[in-house]
Amino acid sequence: MVNTVILKSSNIVDTTKNSTFEYPFPNSIKFENMEVALISASLYYTWFNISDELNNRKFQYKYYNGAGEQVVDVELDEGLYEISDMNKALQYSFIDEGLYLIDSNGDYVYYAEFIANNVRNSVDINTYPIPRTLPTGYERPTTTTGLGDTGPGFHSVAHRPNIILSSNFNEILGYDANFNTEETFPTESVVSQTKSSTKAPNVNPNSSVLVEINIVDNPYGNPANIIYAIVPNVSVGSLIYVNPAEYAFVPIKDGVYNNLRLRLLNKDTLQPLTIQDGQITMILGIQERKKYNNQALPVAGGGRYR
Fold first, then answer.
1. Tell me, what DSSP letter sits at residue 9?
2. Domain segments of the chain: what residues?
3. pTM score, whole prediction
4. Which of 145, 188, 265, 280 is least enclosed, having the fewest CB within 10 Å?
């Protein structure tokens, strides 16, 4: 017989991270030859992929205008980002900097972009040459910086901006640390350039969440108190529902317990994950540990273990 323990929002004891639960037993309980498994779980996919915790909020770009080299630091707000969101953040920075022009249709023209390339499993960085004079039919932005109409003007050499990926942001896009889109900067050029990821992008560093319970002892696990890994299979912000087809029971350490503590952990740091939405339900099953005898077990093809 499987007995269930239900942990929900009211069991959360760390409301900053929403990832540590405590279930007080009505009385002290002695567990002997018992085991536990995750029966089901429901939680929203609301842990940030850009955060101070992950130290990946910053990158940089450089360009030249009439005043010489300009270095711009981009700092992203903490949040759940798709590649398209990161590209929008880059564009907003260009607008703040005045690093854009306005074409004859009134559209803003930017000189770099992040594009998801699903065919090649890459995040491509496209950079375009910043002209040395105002193209026909174009207007300059009304700013005192960048290429603004009251600013220092254009540089004497057409060149592409240099995008620099640092502080773990490179891992998100799939590039080496401190990657530069320009090997030599500035390089005179009137043609565009595309750089593709040098390794697999890791858009969500927390691609799986480990479920830890304090009362278990998995002799084959390291750490020994992990009972399950939740892998999001929905879009960000959507509900993740876990309902294993078969339950993976893990032995409970023999002893007397007043409570059960469950934590949802970052798979790399093994520290509690910061989850924005605390509407979480976890259902555990506890049963007597299965005993296996020495009877022969069937194998494929009708044979038997002996």
1. G
2. 3-47+206-288, 58-195
3. 0.83
4. 188
Kindly report, residue by residue over 210-266, the tens digit of the pLDDT: 999 999 988 887 888 999 999 998 988 899 999 999 999 999 999 999 999 999 999
Q: For residue 243, what are its two tokens?
A: 């309902």
pLDDT band for position 306 (50/70/90)? very low
Pairwise CA distance, residues 168 & 118, whole Å: 22
3-state secondary structure of 177: coil
Q: Which tokens is 292 given?
A: 């296996």
**Coil, strand or helix: which one is 172?**
helix
DSSP conformation class of 298: B
Which of the listed CATH numbers 2.40.37.20, 2.102.10.10, 2.60.120.1100, 3.40.50.1000 matches domain 3-47+206-288? 2.60.120.1100
SS3 track for 205-251: CCCCEEEEECCECCCCCCCCCEEEEECCCCCCCCEEEECCCCCCCEE
Using CA atoms, how far apart are residues 65 and 136, in angstroms rounded to an integer?
19
